[in-house]
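Below is one protein, fold included:
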Amino acid sequence: MLKVVSWNVNSINVRKEQVLRFLEEKQPDFLLLQETKVEHFPKEPFQRLGYKVYHAGGKGRNGVAILSKEEADETVIGFGDLFQDVQAKERLIGCRFKDLYVFSVYVPNGAPVESDYYYYKLEFFYHLREYLEKNFSPQDKIILGGDFNVALQPQDVYDPLLFEGQICFTERERKAMSYLLDWGLIDTFRLLYPDKKGLFTWWDYQFSAFKKNLGMRLDYILATKPLAQHLKECDVDLKTRGLPKPSDHAPIIAMFDL
């Protein structure tokens, strides 16, 4: 059984002990992290648990990592040579493990709507699809997990009418992410639960949002068909989000019968 976890930790330095305890308890094969907010990842305590750490980040901002029980055969940061996107080097990392490709992505938030940040976010999705098209096939075994900062469907937000037109829930963002999925990526959660409502991955720190379940589903583990056809479980770890001093995101966990 292959266990994959994706988690926006909102600072690895702040959440380091939480992540270490999580690894000890859950023992995932791959832990995909976003928003590490460090230039230099504190690798040593994770290595003591038996994990290899592959990281790309900037000082106090962005940052993505892949923690793996096995050593990667190859690592790529950003879009490689395809696009000269400096920020992408802190937002996308990929590792090859034999014939399995694993990516951790942190898509820009894009706020406010109609700003340069917003249009960069849309562009990021199109660049990511082009990167996949140039380098891979939908028949490859690919996992792309992370914080996509888009709620794709009405059931992915607690109040669709309230959120419509706001950042992470605009029509153009949904179209951009759908364009990425149309390349050949499958939303593992929706594969198992096509109509499920009320299970989110992000809640604002304010307004007792987590307690009231006023959230959005912004985090995904996407997989190509050769992996998705072996999917057994996909869930959100609400217990971790309920800990003291949590990230505003909960980990998502997918299990593949491989």
Remarks:
- The mean pLDDT is 98.
- The longest strand covers residues 61-68.
- Residues 9 and 15 are 7 Å apart (CA to CA).
- The longest helix spans residues 116-135.
